[in-house]
Amino acid sequence: MQVYRLAKSKYAGDISGTGAAIHPGRWNKRGYPVLYTGVNPEIALLEIIVHLPPMLAPALDLLVLELPDNSILELKESDLPSNWSDYPAPTILSEIGQRWIEDGKNLALQVPSSIIKTSSILILNCQHPNYGEVRILERRPFQLDPRLIK
Question: Where is the RES domain positioned along the sequence (predicted)?
Answer without folding.
Answer: 14-138
